[in-house]
Design a protein that fits this description.
Shape of chain B: globular
Number of domains of chain B: 1
Shape of chain A: globular
CATH topology of chain B: Arp2/3 complex 21 kDa subunit ARPC3
Distance between the termini of chain A: 69 Å
Low-confidence stretches of chain A: none
Structural class of chain A: alpha/beta
Low-confidence stretches of chain B: none
Radius of gyration of chain A: 30 Å
Radius of gyration of chain B: 16 Å
Strand content of chain A: 15-25%
CATH class of the largest domain in chain A: Alpha Beta
Largest sheet of chain B: none
Helix content of chain A: 40-55%
Largest sheet of chain A: 6 strands, mixed
CATH class of chain B: Mainly Alpha
Helix content of chain B: over 70%
Number of helices of chain B: 6
Order of helices and strands of chain B: HHHHHH
CATH architecture of chain B: Orthogonal Bundle
CATH topology of the largest domain in chain A: Rossmann fold
Oligomer: heterodimer
Strand content of chain B: under 5%
CATH superfamily of the largest domain in chain A: P-loop containing nucleotide triphosphate hydrolases
Structural class of chain B: mainly alpha
Strand order of the largest sheet of chain A: 5-6-7-3-8-9
Number of strands of chain B: 0
């Protein structure tokens, strides 16, 4: 068992449909145990090399290779990517670390030791069931690291693991890597455009530019100073533009961040909102931007309350650049976006100014990261807004991108715009000579308690069976007797086991309504027989249709009631366990569905920001359906983008290696759970028998 | 690296993509469930079968997943996953949703199979949507409207199929094209 050797010789790689190769003539050898840093500007081919070495670009569709690339060793390869939210696979911490072990058929008995050791090595000692959604970015990156480590890799590849993190997150990941390198022997390849962070941890630095390796040196002496960011010269300040007094902010209307704040921002001034994660920087920025309401106190911009202003007016007053610039875009082409943002007459001149004139007909979301950022900025400044608000503008930027950002902010400030940014980045704040407003740290988010009680501990398949068996029986007939008998029996069972099922009334209300509405429809349009009471067009209310309406109402209650109640406490992870272990459904699909469900939480966050940006971009006054449509498609695009990263992270952890997996969590189906199935079957059989014996059986088919 | 690709084989990334599409469609189902209870259902209850015209939205899990991923089984998987999300979040039908998901997914899947998994254009989408609509109508008419008269059943059935073909079929086809245009998919 040992560290891997890497031998790459005259290797080139092209993505399909691209003329320039992403990598060209790469020759590189890593000795077992060597620690190498790969650096270079954005788009230079670093991540492509990482993905190839990790073995996640092995499909013939992925691209064309020439030359040779060997990774020699008896251990798997591990890969950690840049985006923290997009590489968490499971809902619980230990399950997530176990993911790769399950895919590679590690015996369940060995898993716990590997998981515990991996979590200790990355300094993430959390309860096994700790929800992954409650983790910070730095914790998520260490979780991803633990997921790779548990597989005891011979080659560990870290692709920009700290670029999307705040300073605390960066420190925690660096110290985790330092610790694990002391404890484990493996070959390490780190990719980062901030080489100085890794100086003490690596012994070689390789630089990549435009797809070629341009230098390869042993690490010696001190880290090179980071390319110094040229500071701007602040312009003379004008009148106060933003005036904040006794302001209290809140993201969801309930939890309030920090104490009341009072300050003002003058024309041309640059103000940085600082504070730890959860201190409410983004919330404050969005309140100043007028997309979130003030919870107390007031904000005025040029004398107006931005939250009361119409969305159209707000867009001409305040420009907002969100953390992910993609959230700014709502239209199908760059041209349409600029036309809406700066007016049709200025499209060409503005596009040229921001270097977007070659991509006017491209879809905004298909642009590169840098182009998206420039477009977002063009839109936020194009209407000569008085205030410009940025949320974490420097995250994921390389040195060139950062220098460009500082220049752009400096220009805005020189033009008399008040610039407000929420940021973790000290270097950026220094270069901007920004005034700092420091927020108090907030309370950690509450962790929800998992559901308990009989419905939460029974095997979900037993509950599905218990609900479906009577339903199948009742579907054969439509009559009052069978439905009533089933309902009475179920109510009796509910009284026996149902204590502790809270919120039953709310759960049952929609079923009750559905039964009433369907009964109404049947009363009007049911099979008619006997006396006719009322007739109008297609409506025939008769003795027969009223009988059928009553039977319909009872039948829907008897079928829908248990279906809703029994499924009301089912947990997705436990359901998936049962589906793969007892129902033997294709496991990779079951676990894939589970990972998709987890990504939905992230997508929900996208939706929130999109709602803010819609108001900031002047589209918030539109009707609800138009707003929904405008948000929905881009949410979908972002979700698919995220799925590409997730797929890569999952494949790097052996997802799809086999069609079956071993199981860290054992799903049990104890004998008492059969009682549910038997009970369901009995209720179904008894109710139909009662209908037959009383002569009221009314077959549905035929 | 130039071995022939089996068009029908699922790669791990296809599973992840299908899962994300299915789950997003599940989110759409949830929104549609919420819109239906207070708004559409009470009004629809008075109609002689046209209420099914809006139900095609609940077929988009299968259609979207199939059109995006283009693999055998994608329609079935996507529709089952989307309805599972709907049931797990909590809706008015509980476990029954899973049955609907499986049957409706099968309705679309059969049509794509009849096209030998070679056609993914608007015609295939339209017909598969209709196929899924047939499945939905069959379930609705046995579960909710078993006592209805023949006229109602006919109008309801045709409305379901039309909604499946137009809303789910053509709608999903249009969304998929928009996704390709936005650079999210390579097709």
């Amino acid at each position: 068992m040992g560290a891997a050797r890497v031998d790459i010789s005259d290797f080139s790689w092209s993505f399909p449909g691209q003329l320039t190769p992403a990598l060209q003539g790469i020759t590189l050898s890593l000795e077992p145990g060597e620690r190498v840093l790969l650096t270079g500007p954005s788009g230079s081919g670093k991540s492509t090399l990482a993905a190839l070495l990790a073995g996640v670009l092995r499909d013939p569709d992925d691209g064309v290779a020439s030359g040779t690339m060997f990774v020699v060793g008896d251990r798997p390869r591990g890969l950690v990517l840049q985006q923290p939210e997009d590489q968490t696979v499971m809902a619980r911490v230990h399950d997530d670390v176990a993911f790769g072990l399950e895919n590679s058929w590690v015996e369940p008995a060995q898993m716990q030791g590997l998981i515990d050791q991996a979590l200790v090595d990355v300094g993430l000692a959390l309860a096994p069931d700790h929800p992954t959604r409650a983790l910070s970015g730095g914790q998520r990156q260490r979780l991803a690291l633990a997921g790779a480590l548990a597989m005891e890799p011979g080659l560990l590849i870290l692709d920009e693991p700290t670029s999307a993190l705040d300073p605390d997150g960066v420190t925690s990941v660096l110290s985790a890597v330092e610790t694990l390198l002391e404890r484990r022997r493996m070959t390490l390849l780190v990719i980062d455009h901030n080489p100085e962070r890794w100086w003490g941890l690596v012994n070689r630095v390789v630089r990549c530019e435009a797809g070629e390796l341009v230098s390869d040196e042993a690490v010696s002496g001190k880290a090179p100073p980071r390319a110094t960011l040229r500071a701007i010269t602040p312009p003379p300040l004008g009148e106060p533009v933003v005036v904040v007094s006794d302001l209290e902010v809140s993201r969801d209307g309930a939890v309030t961040h920090g104490g009341p704040l009072s300050f003002s921002v003058q024309a041309g001034e640059i103000v940085a909102l600082r504070g730890a994660n959860g201190s409410g920087k983004t919330t404050l920025a969005m309140t100043l931007a007028g997309v979130l309401p003030a919870r107390g106190g007031s904000v005025t911009i040029g004398g107006l309350n931005p939250h009361v202003a119409s969305s159209r007016d707000l867009a001409t007053l305040v420009g907002v650049v969100p953390q992910n610039p993609a959230h700014s875009f709502f239209r199908a082409t760059v041209r349409a976006e600029l036309s809406a943002g700066v007016g049709a007459s200025r499209v060409l001149s503005d596009a040229t100014r921001w270097g977007l004139d070659q991509v006017l007909d491209a879809h905004p979301l298909s642009l590169s990261g840098g182009q998206q950022r420039r477009l977002a900025l063009a839109l936020a400044t194009g209407g000569d807004q008085k205030v410009l608000i940025f949320d974490e503008p420097s995250q994921s930027l390389d040195d060139d991108g950062l220098a460009e950002l500082v220049t752009q902010m400096g220009e805005a400030s020189a033009a008399g715009t008040a610039v407000i940014l929420a940021t973790h980045d000290d270097a950026l704040v220094r270069a901007l000579k920004a005034r700092e407003i420091v927020l108090e740290p907030g309370d950690p988010p509450a962790v929800e308690i998992p559901p308990t009680g009989v419905l939460a501990t029974t095997n979900p398949l037993a509950l599905v069976g218990a609900a479906l068996l009577p339903a199948v029986a009742l579907l054969s007939t439509i009559d009052v007797v069978s439905a009533s008998v089933a309902l009475v029996l179920m109510l009796a069972c509910l009284l026996l086991v149902g204590r502790g099922i809270q919120g039953l009334g709310t759960r049952m209300l929609p079923v009750g309504l559905a039964s009433v509405f369907s009964a109404l429809t049947i009363a009007l349009y049911g099979q008619s027989s006997g006396d006719v009471f009322f007739q109008w067009g297609l409506v025939v209310v008769s003795e027969g249709s009223l009988d059928l309406a009553l039977a319909t109402a009872l039948r829907i209650l008897a079928i829908g009631g248990p279906a809703v109640i029994l499924f009301s406490r089912v947990d997705a992870t436990r359901f998936a366990d049962a589906l793969s272990q007892q129902a033997r459904l294709p496991e990779n699909f079951v676990v894939g569905g589970l990972s998709g469900l987890r990504l939905l939480e992230v997508v929900a966050g996208d939706r929130e920001v999109r709602g803010w940006m819609m108001r900031a971009r002047g589209m918030g006054d539109r009707s609800v359906p138009r707003r929904v449509v405008a948000v929905a498609l881009t949410i979908f695009v972002l979700a698919i983008r995220r799925s590409h990263t997730l797929a890569m992270a999952m494949e790097a952890r052996a997802f799809g290696l086999h069609t079956t997996r071993t199981h860290y969590r054992t799903s049990v189906f104890p004998r008492r759970d059969y009682l549910w199935i038997v009970g369901g079957g009995l209720i179904g059989a008894l109710s139909v028998t009662a209908a037959v014996m009383t002569g009221s059986f009314h077959a549905v088919l035929g | 690296m130039n071995t022939a690709v089996n068009r029908f084989a699922w790669r791990p990334r296809d599973i992840v993509l299908a899962s994300v599409v299915g789950v997003v469609a599940g989110g759409l189902f949830v929104l549609w469930n919420i819109a239906n209870v207070p708004l559409l259902e009470p009004l629809g209850a008075l109609l002689p079968g046209f209420q099914a015209l809006g139900h095609g939205v609940w077929l988009m899990g299968g259609l979207l997943t199939a059109l995006v991923v283009r693999k055998p089984g994608a329609a079935l998987y996507g529709e089952i996953l989307a309805s599972t999300v709907s049931a797990l979040v909590g809706n008015q039908w509980g476990v029954i949703t899973l049955v609907y998901g499986a049957v409706q997914g099968l309705g679309a899947e059969l049509i794509f199979a009849l096209f030998a998994y070679r056609a993914w254009g608007w015609i295939a989408a339209l017909v598969a949507g209709a196929g899924s609509g047939v499945a939905m109508a069959a379930l609705d008419l046995t579960l909710f409207y078993a006592g209805a008269g023949a006229t109602f059943m006919t109008i309801y059935g045709i409305s379901s199929i039309a909604s499946g073909a137009l809303l789910a079929g053509l709608g999903s086809w249009a969304i998929t094209r928009a996704l390709v245009k936005a650079g999210a998919l390579r097709q």
